[in-house]
């Protein structure tokens, strides 16, 4: 069993894309003096908070855009979507290898024109698109 300590040493920051990221001191996560003993050969479940795992960056599925390419047609809806599959990543915390499951619960689409859209929908390709954006003018 792991014990959670104060998060006073975690500070939210923004990454290059304006998304929240956290820098945390993982020294706040420590073993109790008498840890629970695992039973049998089953793997042990270790529960940590999102702040404790915040230094992990999930490998994304990428974004597909329609029409493809670096240019956008102003008069058309710009379609985006991503794969909503659960991602798994293995890391080590205090000498214990753990597998972290990343399950998307929301998506924030930063359109690069000062606007964003947050949704629980990963989007879909044409003709069933669900996440679109219309640019009002060309980039300067």
What report would you give on this structure?
Residues 127-140 have a biased composition (Polar residues). This is Zinc transporter. It comes from Actinomyces oris. Residues 116-140 are annotated as: Disordered. Residues 103-140 form the PKD domain. With 140 residues, this protein is mainly β. The protein has a domain at 61-84 and 104-140. 0% of the residues lie in helices and 28% in strands. It is built from no helices and nine strands. The strands form four sheets. Strands 3-4-9 form a three-stranded antiparallel β-sheet, with no helix packed on it. Strands 1-2 form a two-stranded antiparallel sheet. A hairpin with a 2-residue loop joins strand 5 and strand 6 (96-102). 4% of the residues are buried. Residues 1-10 and 22-31 have low confidence and may be disordered.
Q: What are the SSEs and their pairings?
A:
Layout lengths: L10 E4 L5 E4 L40 E3 L11 E4 L5 E7 L2 E7 L4 E4 L5 E4 L12 E2 L7
Antiparallel strand pairs: 1-2, 3-4, 4-9, 5-6, 7-8
Summarize the entry for a quick read.
By secondary structure, the protein is mainly β. The chain has no helices and 9 strands.
Any idea what the shape is?
A: elongated
Summed over residues and divided by their number, the pLDDT gives a mean of: 75
Contiguous helical run count: 0
Strand order of the largest sheet: 3-4-9
Percent of residues in helices: under 10%
Order of helices and strands: EEEEEEEEE
| Amino-to-carboxy terminus distance | 55 Å
Rg result: 20 Å
Strand content: 25-35%
Describe the main β-sheet briefly: 3 strands, antiparallel
Helix-and-strand structural type: mainly beta
Could you give the count of β-strands? 9
| Low-pLDDT sequence parts | 1-10, 22-31
């Amino acid at each position: 069993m792991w014990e959670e300590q104060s998060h006073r040493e975690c500070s939210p920051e923004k990454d290059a894309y304006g998304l929240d990221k956290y820098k945390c001191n993982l020294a706040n996560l420590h073993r109790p003096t008498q840890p629970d003993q695992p039973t049998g050969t089953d793997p042990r479940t270790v529960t940590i908070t999102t702040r404790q795992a915040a230094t992990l960056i999930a490998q994304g599925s990428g974004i597909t855009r329609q029409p493809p390419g670096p240019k956008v047609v102003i008069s058309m809806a710009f379609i985006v979507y991503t794969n909503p599959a659960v991602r798994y990543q293995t890391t080590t915390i205090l000498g214990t290898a753990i597998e972290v499951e990343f399950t998307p619960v929301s998506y924030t689409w930063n359109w690069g024109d000062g606007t964003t859209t947050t949704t629980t929908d990963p989007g879909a390709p044409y003709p069933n698109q669900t996440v679109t954006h219309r640019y009002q003018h060309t980039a300067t």
